[in-house]
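For consistency, the fold was encoded as tokens, as this record shows:
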Amino acid sequence: MSSFIAAGTAYANHGVNTIPFFIYYSMFGFQRVGDLIWAAGDSRARGFLLGGTAGRTTLAGEGLQHQDGNSHVFSICYPNCVSYDPAFAYEIAVIIQEGIRRMYQEQEHIFYYITVMNEQYEMPPMPEGSREGILKGMYKVRPAGNAKSRFTAQLLGSGAILNEVLSAQKMLEKYDVAADVWSVTSYQELYRDGHACERWNMLHPTEEQKTPYVTQCLADAPGVIVAASDYLKVLPDSIDRWMPRRLHSLGTDGFGRSEDRRSLRDFFEVDARFVVVATLTELARDGQIERTVVAQAIKDLEIDPEKMVPAKS
């Protein structure tokens, strides 16, 4: 971390052509050396912190010392840290390109925290027109494919769990639900934008009021809203005040001591099956479907309703 600070300040003060990339296991960043990251921010360091093996469920059998469900929550506390939780290669490329522009062309006194996974999965092409949304914090990564369905939903996924949400989108077709999937690349950016809009509106009461970006995205998007993250539920909960409707959050509260990804995601209730059940639960709460449909889905998906509460383990 000292090299991150030194390299960042060296560029700022002496014009050295250095762009530091400090790479570490994600849990070893904000949780283990948070004071040094704060010092880096205070020193106006620039550069990239890359948290590898990101999320609480991406590692297989390496124990709690590497299961990070906290860092994106912690990163909100660092004023000049810009954090992202991308899932796909094109998202990372866009974020790093913009980071270099802001830090080294525009000379902003910020640094970036980007989490990256160690799973192998297909990297799709970049959707047309998605660059702005990637940087602002969310964009529609896959629209619903069954427009004639009786019910609708908006599914928010990020980082390691986005592929689970995309799987849930297909599974929900069985229950006559058309779901749009959004990639949330940065809850931090959405959170800060929401509060910035509220502050501006408070201080400019007679001018046209600003609308938070997340509200703009979902204002005309029909259906219940479910968010699944590989981090604590408080992360998606941090933007629920700007949602047009109630938000159902899934996250990784608790320790978790399972030996593989599948078991961990079942334990923390963030896999595709639980995204399906959460969506159906919200539809039932709104009176659109019978609760017996939810009960049948729990049975069909082989979920134990009496399983251990993750947050208490």
About this structure: The beta strands are 21-25, 48-52, 81-84, 111-115, 138-142, 151-157, 177-184, 224-228, 247-250. The longest helix spans residues 89-105.
